[in-house]
Amino acid sequence: MTLENIIKRDFLKFSIPSDRAIAIETMKKNDIPELIALKEGTDTFLGIININDILSKPEEEQLALIMRREVPLINIKDNIEKAISLFLSGDYYYLPVVENSDVVGIISLKEILPLVNKKYKIKKLISEFIDNNYFMSVWENTPTYIASKIMLNFKVSFLGVLNNEGKFVGLLDTTDMIRAGEIISGITESDATKGESGDDWDWNWKASVLIGTSNFYLPNKPVSNYLKKGYSTINQNLPISQAIELFHKEETRYIAVIGDNNVLIGILRDIDILKAFKDLI
Length: 281
Description:
Elements (H helix, E strand, L loop, with lengths): L12 E4 L3 H11 L3 E6 L5 E6 H6 L17 E2 L4 H11 L3 E6 L2 E7 H12 L16 E3 L4 H11 L3 E5 L5 E6 H7 L1 E13 L10 E13 L15 E3 L4 H10 L4 E5 L5 E6 H5 L7
Parallel strand pairs: 1-2, 4-5, 7-8, 12-13
Antiparallel strand pairs: 2-3, 5-6, 8-9, 10-11, 13-14
């Protein structure tokens, strides 16, 4: 089974060099948490720019120092099993597809899962796939800025949100953070010390250097203001094939697994399902 039929050739390309503000604006405009970075004027792959990486290095302006370069590439002639192995190697959602060193498209987990399920026909329940170690929740009145810090500190890309009664009311993920945030440009002043005589070796007087900056700010408003609308839910006692159908149908990476009385049991991720096929490849 080859990759040919699931390659997305019309994908968003982001050219490097560029700056952080443009990357964030591109993410906000397209409602996506990461970008495929190519060398300007070419289709040469340079890396992936992820919103979490930007937020983790707020002082860094240069995208070249933020983006992930060690991303696995897959060849257009490789098979589905090779793609599964690469997806699992680093919890990726997209894999760049290369031909003659140029990126010709991308493949996503959303497209991989139905094909893998059709081939291997795993008959297990959703309850067997929930990774409770990966799941975290916050109170609905938690400030959004604090929620972003929780995501970064615990290396998660989504949070469950609970109300005062402890009931699940929604999901908050990195795309919601992008929509909530604001880019603010400004000027900072830096002191460059010089010698009185102007010689490089004489360090006595100071000269001011103005530096343009663009910072991404998250509000301290409650996370309830930015909850994802129309999040997907599913019962843990259903077969995993139904979850795969839901992932493929909707633009989501996470499904809330709900029990009785709207109690949140866990979050099912697309990568959790893919792990079930690891021993079959």
